[in-house]
């Protein structure tokens, strides 16, 4: 995703120690994540633009056949409180080679995932044998939109989020519909 405005720029790899070299996002400190920025006093239209940027970024990611698989609020940075930057591609997969989750209901792992990892799609946490998909990324994005909607007290944004976080993957909104719904709120 190098070259897309909403993803950190990857300069390359360093061999010793083995690591990736990414664009520096912050100025004096690291840019705040969505989780931190939610405590800031920002107007609703600002948040709508953040949501629109996130939809466009995820759509571009999906257009390249990629799944993020971990788009929680800590992996969404806001540069200068305006510019969305998605980070942490450690769980990224190709859509043609998805990862299967096998979390058995009633286990400690199941309880942990349904407590600490609620941003993961419902089916990944509750239905053993479920695979990551476009729909699971949409769920995660919807989870973030619900957080924002709760914070800014927007029933409209929370309604958009509810269609993104339906328990059944095939019932979730597609990103094009989400983009349309958000644009109507401006």
List the helices and strands and how they pair.
Blueprint: E1 10-15, E2 18-22, H1 34-37, H2 44-63, E3 66-67, E4 76-79, E5 83-86, E6 93-94, E7 100-101, H3 108-116, H4 122-126, E8 130-131, H5 134-152, H6 155-164, H7 175-185
Antiparallel strand pairs: 1-2, 3-6, 4-5, 7-8
Please explain how this structure is put together.
Strands 1-2 form a two-stranded antiparallel sheet. The protein has a two-stranded antiparallel ribbon with strand order 3-6. Strands 4-5 form a two-stranded antiparallel sheet. The chain has helices at residues 34-37, 44-63, 108-116, 122-126, 134-152, 155-164, 175-185; strands spanning 10-15, 18-22, 66-67, 76-79, 83-86, 93-94, 100-101, 130-131. The chain is globular. It has one domain (10-184): Transferase(Phosphotransferase), domain 1, CATH 1.10.510. A hairpin with a 2-residue loop joins strand 1 (10-15) and strand 2. Helix 2 runs antiparallel to helix 5 (134-152), helix 2 packs antiparallel against helix 7 (175-185) and helix 6 (155-164) runs antiparallel to helix 7. 42% of the residues lie in helices and 15% in strands. By secondary structure, it is α+β, with helices and mostly antiparallel strands.
